[in-house]
């Protein structure tokens, strides 16, 4: 356990080193936040209460999305390129020699990274959004805590998905296509482009039970106090359920992959 | 110039051959490149499933804005999208290799790992553009007909200039590649929606500061028979090519300054 805590701390420190990249990311998230906010204003002007949100809630949704973009790996987990490169080059053999579990190792890295991204890239866009627009904020202080728990669960689900994607490199060698497909589904079904509650009919119902809804839609609903009491527990159970299923799947794939591994390179 | 283009063509062709080695992966990336941008449009479709108009613009008009911006950006992205990787080369010192070759650095950087999959984005933009041409209700005049291809090509040049200027900035701030994204990807998203929904200061910013409005807003509003944004005169609709030339000159200058001030990491 101490080992994995050290790895997580290393992940945090590593991303904390990239100060210029963090500042650039904050700038980009903020610009996109402004653009999206105005499109949402136009939409909610025409259809107040669309998807069960009023205007301040819809605007809060935009900025939560920008704040969680890096934290919950909505556009990529941030580690899969590196892991796939290691599989492709054969460096993965060194990782498998280590007295640590591959999946736990990378999960620790991902948790450390996300913790930094939440602080480094999440806080500023959220504050700017709250100052520039009239956004809905939690009425009860405890909601902030509930929100953070939901985000943490979202981070684990996100990791589990990206870990599976990365392991595909054992079979595909060049995993760029798999990454792109995962990126695409994540972007659409997490609700980054449009809240899942706005998706019509069957599409909306399917999107809301897929794992990606754990990354943004559920944390946002917790933040907006749409999920309280038993509803909140239900939300946590949904997220934790997907996390367990996907982590177990990752573990199974890892076992098959390492049993048949033929190390690349000479 | 000619020499640079020839080198660009050769390097790009080499990367295309290399990409074709992993055919399945290429097919998947091409498909997902197409669908990735298509999802942007699905969002607009979903929005119009709920409303009749956005900011006083009909679905056909928004589709026209989407198609013109998307195609212009797709062309720039295909030709020059790879310059965004420059920061990595500056950081690990591999830019030195490019500097000693007798070929313009910009041509090498732009063709480096040339990504043919980006054709997916161009195709998707073109499909929407052509579709929207059937949908919009416009009294076509020769000027309006000519403006459509002119804005797509001029817009592609403006986006290219932004990409090169962004790459030049990476000589000074290697890790700041993402800043360019807010003007390229962000600009593309912005231009897909009508200017009437954005704050006046934002519209003025993309007209007078970073002239992205000339990619499609200014000429497209003329085609659609609407008023020009941010108090521009009517003839501004035809100014896109001139704006594109000025932008390219400025980006070329920025690139030169960047290359001159480059210092190798020495490792």
UniProtKB/TrEMBL annotation, chain A:
Keyword Transmembrane: yes
InterPro entries tied to this protein: ABC-2_transporter-like (IPR010390)
Keywords: Membrane, Transmembrane, Transmembrane helix
Keyword set includes Cell inner membrane: no
Domain of life assignment: Bacteria
One matching Pfam family: ABC2_membrane_6
Transmembrane segments: 20-41, 61-79, 118-138, 144-172, 181-203, 230-250
Protein name: ABC-2 family transporter protein
Organism: Streptomyces ficellus
């Amino acid at each position: 356990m101490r080992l994995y805590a050290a790895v997580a701390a290393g992940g945090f420190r590593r991303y904390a080193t990239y100060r210029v990249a963090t500042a650039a990311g904050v700038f980009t998230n903020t610009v996109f936040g402004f653009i999206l906010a105005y499109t949402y204003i136009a939409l909610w002007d025409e259809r107040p209460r669309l998807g069960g949100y009023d205007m301040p809630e819809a605007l809060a949704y935009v900025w939560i999305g920008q704040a969680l973009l890096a934290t919950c790996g909505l556009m990529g987990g941030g580690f899969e390129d590196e892991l796939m490169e290691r599989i492709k080059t054969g460096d993965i053999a060194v990782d498998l020699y280590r007295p640590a579990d591959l999946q736990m190792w990378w999960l620790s890295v991902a948790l450390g990274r996300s913790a930094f991204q939440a602080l480094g890239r999440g806080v500023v866009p959220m504050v700017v959004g709250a100052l520039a627009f009239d956004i809905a904020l939690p009425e009860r202080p405890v909601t902030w805590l509930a929100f953070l728990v939901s985000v943490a669960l979202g981070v684990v689900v996100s990791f589990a998905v990206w870990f599976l994607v990365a392991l595909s490199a054992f079979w595909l060698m060049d995993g760029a296509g798999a990454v792109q497909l995962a990126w695409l589904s994540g972007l659409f079904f997490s609700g980054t482009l449009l809240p899942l509650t706005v998706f019509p009919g069957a599409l909306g119902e399917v999107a809301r039970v897929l794992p990606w809804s754990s990354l943004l839609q559920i944390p946002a609903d917790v933040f907006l106090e749409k999920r309280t009491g038993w509803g909140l527990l239900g939300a946590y159970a949904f997220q934790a359920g997907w996390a367990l299923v996907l982590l177990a799947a990752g573990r199974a794939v890892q076992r098959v992959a390492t049993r048949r591994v033929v190390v690349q390179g000479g | 110039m000619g020499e640079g283009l020839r080198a660009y063509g050769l390097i790009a062709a080499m990367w295309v051959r290399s990409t074709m080695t992993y055919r399945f992966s290429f097919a998947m990336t091409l498909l997902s490149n197409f669908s990735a941008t298509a999802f942007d449009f699905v969002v607009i479709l979903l929005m119009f499933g709920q409303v009749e108009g956005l900011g006083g613009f009909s679905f056909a008009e928004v589709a026209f804005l989407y198609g013109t911006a998307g195609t212009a950006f797709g062309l720039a992205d295909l030709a020059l999208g790879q310059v965004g990787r420059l920061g990595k080369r500056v950081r690990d010192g591999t830019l030195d290799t490019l500097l000693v070759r007798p070929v313009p650095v910009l041509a090498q950087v732009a063709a480096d790992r040339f990504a043919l999959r980006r054709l997916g984005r161009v195709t998707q933009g073109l499909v929407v553009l052509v579709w929207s041409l059937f949908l919009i209700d416009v009294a076509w005049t020769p000027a309006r007909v000519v403006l459509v291809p002119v804005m797509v090509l001029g817009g592609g040049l403006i986006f290219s200039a932004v990409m090169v200027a962004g790459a030049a900035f990476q000589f000074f701030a290697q890790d700041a590649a993402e800043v360019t994204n807010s003007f390229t990807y962000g600009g593309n998203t912005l231009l897909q929606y009508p200017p009437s929904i954005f704050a006046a200061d934002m519209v003025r910013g993309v007209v007078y500061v970073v002239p992205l409005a000339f990619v499609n807003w200014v000429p497209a509003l003329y085609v659609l028979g609407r008023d020009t944004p941010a108090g521009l005169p009517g003839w501004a609709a035809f100014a896109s090519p001139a704006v594109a030339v000025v932008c390219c000159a400025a980006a070329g200058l920025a690139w030169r300054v960047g290359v001159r001030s480059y210092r190798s990491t020495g490792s």
